[in-house]
Design a protein that fits this description.
Elements lengths: L1 H28 L4 H41 L5 H12 L14 H36 L4 H15 L2 H12 L23 H38 L3 H8 L4 H13 L19 H6 L5 H10 L3 H29 L7
Helix pairs in contact: 1-12, 4-7, 4-12, 5-7, 6-7, 7-9
Length: 342
């Protein structure tokens, strides 16, 4: 097992290098970089500040003197491959450079957005598994019953609704739209949050979290529920279940003690994804519910051509994804000791 883990960790290094190299080249060759945007700001300021003569003078200064200074400031005075090796060298120190937009270290900018994405990521992950596993088991036990048919129809309906469309519908119906005013329209807390006591603050947070959490959880728990049900139904068809029934064991013991553990093997595939809760940002949901999280940060970084910030986000997400895949494989061994990675 230890050798397998070491091999996987060694494979991650070239994988991460490949990801960062491809993204670095694409990002740096994309038009409309920070220098072009800065030049537009300078020319716009010159044109609006003093008429045509000042605009022409500003353009000339920009093209000859300021351009070289801007290239040096943003690090574009060196060849592309040199800039990449400098970025790798700084990566060893976890230094992703400074954000062009926020004018702060990239790590500080990303960490400042963690609380929003982390809260929704952890809660949505926990709720998804708490709902999907018991519901999937119950649907398998009551297969073809009215409960199974009704919940299947509901799951298909919920799965077919895009999360951002569900968010809009929830706001229209329950957040002061044309129907009910039961929930706030967005944000993480109320304007007078600091004036509340501890328990009032908890209730206020819950009040603000309900609608976004419904949207975050909806898609994932519907898929997991169907997967749990189908996996359990496959297990109860196997010979060892027939043997357990022949011994006179109750259906409850057969399902929950013998079949469930093996049926959980496909479910643990997503266990490693718990690391992604650190970056559980959803651009559309964050826009709809006015949440300042990682999803919106990445979108703004693309629009602003904030190369350093974008590279930092992609590297951390890629690293967490690879570690999560490794943890998923290890979870197989915990659930089923017969599996042995060599």
């Amino acid at each position: 097992m230890l050798q397998y883990i070491l091999r996987r960790l060694l494979i991650m290094l070239p994988t991460l290098l490949g990801i960062t190299l491809i993204v670095f080249v694409i990002v740096n060759l994309a038009p409309g970089g920070p220098i072009e945007q800065k030049l537009q700001q300078i020319r716009f300021a010159g044109a609006s500040g003093g008429g045509e003569s000042m605009s022409n003078s500003s353009t000339q200064v920009v093209s000859e003197e300021v351009l070289e200074a801007l290239k040096k400031q943003y690090g574009f005075d060196k060849p592309l491959h040199t800039r990449y090796f400098i970025w790798l060298k700084n990566l060893i120190k976890l230094d992703f450079g400074e954000s062009f937009t926020y004018e702060e270290p990239v790590v500080d900018v990303i960490v400042s957005k963690f609380p929003v994405s982390l809260q929704f990521g952890i809660l949505s992950l926990i709720l998804s598994y708490l709902i999907s596993i018991p519901l999937g088991v119950l649907k398998a036990i009551k297969k073809d019953s009215s409960f199974d048919v009704l919940t299947t129809v509901l799951l298909f309906i919920m799965y077919s609704i895009p999360p951002f469309m569900l968010g809009i519908l929830l706001l229209v119906f329950f957040a002061g739209g044309s129907f009910f005013d039961w929930f706030p329209i967005g944000g993480l807390y109320s304007d007078f949050y600091d004036e509340m006591n501890f328990f009032e603050q908890i209730l206020d947070r819950i009040h603000h979290f309900i609608l976004p959490l419904i949207c975050y959880v909806m898609g994932s728990f519907t898929v997991l529920t169907s997967l749990m049900k189908n996996s359990l139904l496959e297990e109860i068809k196997k010979d060892y279940i027939r043997t357990a029934r022949a011994k006179g064991l109750s259906e409850k013991i057969i399902y929950l003690k013998h079949a469930l553990r093996n049926a959980l093997i496909p479910i643990v595939t997503g266990i490693g994804g718990f690391l992604s809760v650190f970056f559980a940002g959803s651009l559309l949901l964050e826009r709809i519910f006015q949440l300042d999280g990682v999803g919106l940060l990445g979108f703004n970084a693309v629009l602003a051509r904030d190369f350093n910030l974008l590279m930092g986000l992609i590297f951390i997400q890629s690293f967490l994804m690879l570690i999560g895949n490794l943890l998923s494989d290890l979870a197989y061994v915990v659930v089923d000791p017969r599996i042995d990675f060599k």
